[in-house]
Automatic annotation (TrEMBL), chains A, B:
<dbReference type="InterPro" id="IPR036291">
    <property type="entry name" value="NAD(P)-bd_dom_sf"/>
</dbReference>
<dbReference type="InterPro" id="IPR002347">
    <property type="entry name" value="SDR_fam"/>
</dbReference>
<protein>
    <submittedName>
        <fullName>Short-chain dehydrogenase</fullName>
    </submittedName>
</protein>
<dbReference type="Pfam" id="PF13561">
    <property type="entry name" value="adh_short_C2"/>
</dbReference>
<dbReference type="GO" id="GO:0016616">
    <property type="term" value="F:oxidoreductase activity, acting on the CH-OH group of donors, NAD or NADP as acceptor"/>
</dbReference>
<dbReference type="GO" id="GO:0030497">
    <property type="term" value="P:fatty acid elongation"/>
</dbReference>
<comment type="similarity">
    <text>Belongs to the short-chain dehydrogenases/reductases (SDR) family.</text>
</comment>
Length: 420, 420
């Protein structure tokens, strides 16, 4: 945000104001399965590969910072155009670092449209499909490799979802990818006064791609872990700072016959939790066996691995996980007229943090499955949101959009793995 | 369709081909609550009022006929633009004759985009919101009257859903309605080559209206009437030609303790049904009490009233209804490359027919409720679709879209009535 602020100051110093902001910059993100995503700079094997937090900062953070910092210099009637991707709503193998922040951007755009609408600023989204380019060929080739499919498979699959045939250079109608000019045309339209009445609107530049309806969203309902067949299993609760909630979940899971291991991301919460448990032990006497609570820190993924190691040595291993947000509280009610802190927290603690925990779990279970005598029961994971609803809850809504897409692609990748 | 065919022939005779088709024509439809909709020409009290079947023909039929009859004369790269209304997805009091055919048009447009896409023809939709005009003032005034609300109430309610403030003539930002120029700008864009990659796309010209999410669609699931508390009630089954289905439903409802009255729209089906019942009686002996089956014909609504009269004299009146489509079979798999018959059947037998049955039921129950000693239990109605899914089922999908919107507005009107 500091760099954005400096850049905006320089631009405003020269031009006085800005009428059109197109958030098109970004990066591609590492193209890897969830378990192999480079989480930190040190994980980046390939030369041009990008760490997860960098992708989230580039793809979501940059657009968000620009909207916050530039919009006070935009007069009524100005237009913001956020370039998303149709794949932010699709099963897109090996591209979680790209499509999860884009999914969050979609929801952020809707919230920004509401907040900036009162200032007369319009905020709209373009969803490009796969665009005719060398880049998409490289991306789809790599996807074919990751999936272990013959070359051309991914491209063929996506082409088949396009309803519109279009003439090629020889004038023959065929299914093909839209061009970068098609996207630019939509951007020019959304930047012009011809769209003075449009905000929160989405334009798909995809030749009419029809994506399969997906009911993964049901996973984001306020489940209570009861859906996990807990008996005889060990369940990991990844908590942030939610002490009461963790107490309740732990009690419920133990009643159902599950062992519980808790990973706390907040050290203060861990200390408070242990104090509360000490109190319980004092009341219940010697027979009380306290649940195990350990510190975890997604910024340092080895702390998560250490918890897995502990579980391997002291229990039958982890069979299920319930993942809570890093913070049990909404940081603010607005998404534009706010300072950096809640934005950085959502980007890095919530979104990057959730992906890192999921990545480590995926890697752990992947290793378990190929080990001799692997358990027959499939591991289960449930993401829990804060509170009953997320309706009036902007940060929760953005996070849910990210998690929904994380689940969609994770499932897709997991289904494909089963074929091996 | 004959008039459309003649018109198209004249145009093609002069111009050879057509590049752009904008389906903007139509009519407003009678502005009445479901129970009071003028079903036939003879019901039209007010001078300028339109019968239901005319509205459906104008708003859905005209666009459909034009797409079918004109598209063979449209070269690749041509554009069709269907003008819908944002209210086709909203609770829109007293305007079933307008928003139900528009809801069907939305789904038809998606199917046409798929079918015409292979010919390189694009089909897109514009959803205007309320447009700054005398007409919308008249419409909202009448809506206020129908709802028994103070003048300006409806306009205020819809304005409040708009996220975008816009400068008025004095340069002040305020919430206001989009203009007809805003809609025209979107139409020009969709007609131009700038949207060469867009099909099945929707552009809302609404100042960012946010409509409440609605789960009425759940009503369209394949319910089996078991959800009706049948015991001690009389249930009306409005059937088309589905004999086996009616037999099964009747048996199930009688097992649950409900009396059953069946209204058959097909006389052949009624005759077959009575033959089957005669067979049952022969097997079961004297003790068998056959269910009552009567003919109904929505084109002649008095036949429906006659059934209600019969029920009033011979039972405790009708407490619940299950409404089946007029036909148990999909007439075709395509929506463009077909002749007139399946289109006319869907327009008049299915969509108009469903609204007429619903209208008569609404009127009947309205009369019951104000009668002395009215039943405490609320009447229930369930629309049943053909078969298990409607995924590969174009006519079923269009009909479901219409029924979904019919239910949404009917419920909305019924909730408002409860206040009186």
């Amino acid at each position: 945000p500091a760099a954005v602020r400096a850049g905006v100051e320089a631009i405003i110093g020269r031009h006085g104001h800005i009428d059109i902001l197109v958030n098109n910059a970004g990066s591609t993100g590492a193209q890897r399965r969830l378990a192999e995503i480079p989480l930190n700079e040190t994980d980046c094997d390939l030369d041009d590969e990008e760490a997860l937090s960098t992708s989230v900062a580039n793809l979501l953070g940059m657009a968000w910072h620009l909207m916050r910092i530039l919009s006070p210099h935009m007069p009524p009637g100005s237009a913001i155009i956020n370039i998303s991707t149709i794949f932010s709503r699709a099963e897109y193998y090996g591209r979680i670092p790209y499509v999860v922040p884009k999914a969050a951007l979609n929801t952020l755009t809707q919230l920004a449209a509401r907040e900036l609408g009162t200032r007369g600023i319009r905020v709209n989204t373009i969803f490009p499909g796969p665009i005719e380019s060398e880049r998409i060929q490289t991306v789809f080739q790599r996807m074919d490799q990751l999936k272990g499919r013959p070359e051309g498979d991914t491209a063929t699959q996506f082409l088949a979802t396009m309803r519109l045939y279009r003439a090629n250079d020889q004038g023959q109608l065929e299914r093909r990818f839209p061009t970068i000019c098609d996207v630019a045309d939509a951007a020019v339209f959304l930047a012009s006064d011809e769209t003075a009445a449009l905000t929160g609107e989405t334009i798909e530049v995809t030749h009419g791609m029809e994506l399969p309806a997906s009911s993964e969203t049901s996973l984001l309902a306020r489940t209570d872990l009861r859906t996990i067949d807990a008996n005889g299993r060990t369940t990991l609760i990844c908590a942030g700072d939610q002490i009461e909630e963790v107490m309740a979940l732990t009690g419920m899971l133990r009643t159902c016959g599950s062992e519980v291991i808790i990973g706390f991301r907040s050290e203060a919460a861990l200390a408070q939790f242990e104090q509360a448990i000490g109190e319980s032990r004092r009341l219940a006497g010697e027979s009380f066996i306290p649940p195990i609570a350990l510190p975890i820190d997604p910024r340092n993924p080895s702390t998560i691995d250490a918890l897995f190691d502990w579980a391997g040595e002291n229990t039958g291993g982890i069979h299920a996980a319930g993942i809570l947000p890093a913070s049990g509280h909404e940081p603010a009610t607005q998404v534009i007229d706010i300072d950096d802190a809640p934005v950085e927290a959502l980007l890095h603690d919530e979104i990057v943090g959730s992906i890192i925990i999921a990545s480590r779990l995926a890697r752990y279970w992947q290793a378990q499955r190929i080990a001799p005598g692997a358990r027959a029961r499939e591991p289960r994971v449930i993401f829990l949101s804060n509170g009953a609803g997320t309706a009036g809850n902007p940060y929760g809504r953005i996070q849910s959009a990210a998690i929904e897409q994380l689940i969609r692609v994770w499932r897709h990748e997991a289904r494909s793995e089963e074929r091996f």
